[in-house]
Design brief:
- The protein has about 190 residues and is an alpha/beta fold.
- Helix content is about 55%, strand content about 5%.
- The chain is built from eleven helices and four strands.
- It has a four-stranded parallel β-sheet, with helices on both faces.
- Strand 3, helix 7 and strand 4 form a beta-alpha-beta unit.
- The longest helix has 14 residues.
- It is globular and about 50 Å long.
- About 40% of the residues are buried.
Length: about 190
């Protein structure tokens, strides 16, 4: 299996759970800043977690899942591929082994996760995979290509119709969604988004 020519990020379930964070990551991926990867196991994990927190959404998340799949057509690291890599991998939480295995099978350069402690450097560094918080990841994309990133956020904000978001509403939503540095960047670029 050939690797992706762009920087490839394996997205952990915890970054696909909060809507604003997911939307930001999908917007940057569809803008071509990086190749996003995940697995059906990761999908099940974020759906289960969201349905547990919001029982009113039970059975209503298939549309969101399909939109994510359509936005990033090459998203899937197959179960067969990541299971073939999982043997012998060790992490503090055995339930996270599939994420590291998927990163290996998907030729990922990094794992984007808010659960940094679950992927200690001594367990992940030997594989050449960086573990990065979503806020740091998004700001790094911004630093690499400000024009494309700002344009992606502008398109994202334009999609927020119900209710329509001011630049400050948009930044505040990112901050509430666990992206304080991204929110600050958006405030600084308010006239552009």
């Amino acid at each position: 299996m050939a690797g992706h020519v762009r920087y490839t990020a394996l997205l952990d379930a915890c970054v696909l759970f909060p809507l604003a964070m997911t939307d930001a990551l999908m917007s940057l991926a569809t803008a071509g800043l990086f190749a996003a990867k995940w697995t059906t196991a990761i999908e099940s994990e974020w759906i289960d977690a969201l349905e547990e927190r919001r029982p009113d959404l039970k059975g209503k998340l298939n549309g969101r899942r399909e939109q994510m799949r359509q936005a990033v057509p090459d998203w899937e690291v197959s179960e067969a591929a990541w299971k073939a890599c999982a043997g012998g991998l060790k992490l503090p939480d055995p339930n996270d082994v599939h994420v590291l295995a998927a990163a290996l099978a998907g030729h990922a350069d990094c794992i984007v996760t808010a659960n940094m402690k679950d992927f200690p450097r001594e367990a992940v560094d030997p594989f050449g995979i960086e573990v990065i918080h979503p806020d740091q990841f998004i700001v790094s994309q911004w630093d690499l290509d400000q024009l494309v990133t700002v344009a992606a956020f502008k398109r994202m904000r334009a999609r927020w119709k119900k209710p329509e978001a001011t630049a400050e509403d948009f930044a505040a939503a990112m901050e509430r969604g666990g992206l304080p540095v991204t929110a600050q960047r958006l405030r600084e670029a308010a006239e552009l988004i």
